[in-house]
Automatic annotation (TrEMBL):
Name of the protein described by the UniProt record: Peroxidase
Alphabetical list of SUPFAM superfamilies matching this protein: Heme-dependent peroxidases
Pfam families: peroxidase
Broad EC category: oxidoreductase
Residues under site feature: Transition state stabilizer: R80
Keyword terms, alphabetized: Calcium, Disulfide bond, Glycoprotein, Heme, Hydrogen peroxide, Iron, Metal-binding, Oxidoreductase, Peroxidase, Secreted, Signal
Source taxonomy: Eukaryota, Viridiplantae, Streptophyta, Embryophyta, Tracheophyta
């Protein structure tokens, strides 16, 4: 009886979170590179490209499928690339700009992958629909396709984002690196209009993908100066990680159980002390996040899948105020569009 009541309360909490997530949000608090979050209802539409580029989604799907067949690990990389983009300056493809001191050149971005996938999609879309589809919309839709290719849920993507012209490396280094505590994670998400449920659900994307050993080496020995490993690591898992990490650049699956499948095993692993990153494992021990983790381990997959779709929409809807000349539809995702040439004034007749 108690378990049934606990589950009922949690499901009610989910409903409240989902309803609140659908309401327009416009926090007053200043954010990195912007004054406030825009209401997505005013700028995005499911039918945005129906007339101007009806083949856009088909192109993105076909290209993503082709790249996935070559290298399935790129799917997880695209989802991560999308998060890094939206977390700084909103979903404006600023992570794709390739110049000195851009977000792409930041330390936090060194292990990002998938840029060539977006370039390939953009080139084909430009061929079919010139100067129409933004790189930000392409990356957002590609993240949805990547999730589907790994066995995850489908969701409708609203379109109409513009590409930013500003990208600063030091801002990208604000993205969580795997060592933050839960309070810092909650603050980071809330500053971007996302809630605690979004934090737990989007962390569930770690059911696929890999991490470099440098992100968790501090857990394997002399944890917090104790001279011992992190006590929240399962002993057998600790031994496996130690064997796998000969170099800090070595890669390890985030989900050791079903690393190639989008499922709920990430949450089950946390209960077994097998969360790879500190930011993963602490979700299981913190009273603000643990109830949601437990709910995902005790319910049917539909609960996680449905909420993951909703939280990915919330992530993709992070749009920041920018000056009119600070956004555009890039012709090449790596560079801002060239400034229009000024025509010389004709000589005046005397």
């Amino acid at each position: 009886m108690k378990r049934w009541f606990f589950t009922f309360v949690l499901l009610a909490q989910f409903e409240l979170y989902m309803v609140s997530a659908m309401l327009p949000q416009n926090p007053v608090k200043d954010l990195v590179g912007a004054s406030s979050i825009l209401s997505p209802q005013d700028f995005l539409s499911f039918s945005y490209y129906h007339k101007t580029c009806p083949a856009a989604e088909e192109i993105i799907n076909q290209k993503m499928t082709a790249w996935f067949r070559k290298d399935y690990t790129l799917a997880a990389s695209i989802i991560r690339l999308h998060f890094h983009d939206c977390a700084i300056r909103g979903c404006d493809a600023s992570i794709l700009l390739n110049h000195r001191n851009s977000e792409r050149a930041a330390y936090a971005s060194k292990t990002l992958r998938g840029f060539q996938v977006i370039d390939d999609i953009k080139a084909e879309i430009e061929r079919r629909c010139p100067k129409t589809v933004s790189c930000a919309d392409i990356l957002t839709a590609a993240a949805r396709e990547a999730t589907l290719l790994l066995g995850g849920p489908f969701w409708e993507v609203p379109y109409g984002r513009k590409d930013g012209r500003t990208s600063i490396a030091k801002e990208a280094d604000l993205v969580p690196q795997g060592r933050e505590n839960v309070t810092a994670l909650i603050d980071f998400f809330q500053e971007r209009g996302l809630n605690v449920l979004d934090l737990v659900v989007l962390s569930g994307s770690h059911t696929i993908g890999r991490s470099s050993c440098r992100s968790f080496l501090h857990r394997l020995a002399n944890y917090k100066g104790t001279g011992r490993p992190d006590p929240t690591l399962d002993r057998n898992y600790l031994r496996n990680l130690t064997r796998s990490c000969k170099w800090s650049s070595d890669l390890v699956y985030l989900d050791t159980t079903t690393p190639k499948t989008f499922d709920m095993e990430y949450y089950n692993n946390l209960g077994k002390k097998m969360g790879l990153l500190s930011t993963d494992q602490e979700l299981y021990s913190d009273p603000r996040t643990e109830p949601f983790v437990s709910a995902f381990t005790s319910q049917q997959p539909d609960l996680f899948f449905n909420q993951f779709a909703a939280s990915m929409v919330n992530l993709g809807n992070i749009l920041f105020h920018t000056a009119p000349n600070e956004s555009e539809i890039r012709l090449n995702c790596n560079y801002v569009n060239p400034a229009p040439r000024k025509t010389a004034n004709p000589p005046r007749r005397v």
